[in-house]
Amino acid sequence: MKSGILYAGAMVLALSMNVTHAAGDAKAGQAKTAVCAACHGMDGNSNGPEWPNLAAQHAGYIVKQLKAFKTGQRTNPLMTPQAQALSDQDMEDVAAYFASQKVKGSEADASKVALGQQIYQGGIASTKVTACLACHGPDGRGNPAAVYPSLYGQRSAYVVLQLQNYRNHTRTTDKGQAEIMQMEAGKLTDDQIKAVAAYIQGLR
Ligand code: HEC
Ligand code: HEC
Fold first, then answer.
1. Which of 38, 70, 68 is nearest to 54 (CA)?
2. pLDDT for residue 186
3. Distances (CA, A) of 54 to 63, 104, 190, 192
4. Within 10 A of 170 (CB to CB), how many other CB atoms are there?
5. Which of 79, 161, 165, 166 gets mutated to test ligand 1 (max ligand atoms within 8 A of its CB)?
6. Rounded Cα gap, residues 95 and 89, in angstroms
7. How far is it, in rounded angstroms, from Cα 193 to Cα 202?
């Protein structure tokens, strides 16, 4: 009985310590993102079409991807060494900083938006593609609790690359979550990928 009470006390302590650690410090994070700015921009709006915006991305998703790069679950020659240099606390801090920034976004390719919107909002019945909004939300803001990333205003060239990487299974991350996207992207043609990516870039 007595040891049961002690155990419960230790659990509460462990939980509260976890919470303290998990909360990143955006101010400390800003200083640590100087090295990231060359590609992702000072405010998380990236400097190149194949480099993702990180502004307003959910902190939990950013940390998850950084860990995936560090352990080699997700690989990229530019990004892997960057993640390897970060401690767990660095990851929490940079994630808190980027999550607090605003997406500037850019214009969508007008010739592709109509088809892209149709896929994003309604899916494709004939090939059983699920509407993207089911998980990423009508305005592309994702779902932090489920770790469904925010997509609105994301650069279309980056989105095309990621959908192709999911489709050919070179983007794996963790099994459960990445498999969802491998399955959805596996049903998309190149033209459908380009269309939905154009729509996502224009989302606000
Ligand atoms: C030399 C360029 C470069 C630098 C510097 C860089 N990154 Fe990246 N980063 C990339 C590229 C390229 C990708 C996309 C990789 C892919 O296609 O899978 C990426 C992807 C990411 C992702 C995944 C985004 C998503 O939406 O899934 C995160 C998070 C990230 N970087 C964080 C950082 C942080 C934090 C730093 C600084 C410590 C940093 N990056 C520095 C090039 C860079
Ligand atoms: C059932 C939920 C679900 C549906 C439906 C879904 N997604 Fe996703 N999506 C996810 C999850 C979970 C991830 C993160 C997977 C990982 O960790 O690699 C993700 C990741 C992505 C990414 C990578 C984001 C980044 O920053 O790197 C893109 C792009 C994307 N989804 C686009 C789409 C598009 C386009 C559709 C519709 C055709 C779609 N998704 C449908 C759950 C979903």
1. 38
2. 97
3. 11, 11, 25, 24
4. 13
5. 79
6. 10
7. 15
Under a CB-based contact definition with an 8 Å cutoff, are residues 29 and 94 in contact?
A: yes
**Other Cβ atoms closer than 10 A to 137:** 16
Q: Tell how far the Cα of 36 is from the centroid of ligand 1, in angstroms.
A: 7
Closest C-alpha to ligand 1, atom 34? 36
Q: Does residue 52 have its Cβ closer than 6 Å to ligand 1?
A: yes
> Could you tell me which of 49, 25, 28, 27 has the C-alpha nearest to residue 39?
49
Tens digits of residue pLDDT in 14-46 = 443 444 445 899 999 999 999 999 999 999 999
Shortest CA distance to 89 belongs to which of 155, 41, 18, 40? 18
Instruction: Find out whether the beta carbon of 76 lies less than 6 Å from any atom of ligand 1.
Output: yes
Q: Residue 106's CB: how many other CB atoms inside 10 A? A: 14
Report which ligand 2 atom has the smallest distance to the Cα of 147. 12
Take residue 34 and report the two structure tokens written for it: 């100087």
- Tens digits of per-residue pLDDT, 79-94? 999 999 999 999 999 9
Is 3 a residue whose pLDDT tops 70?
A: no
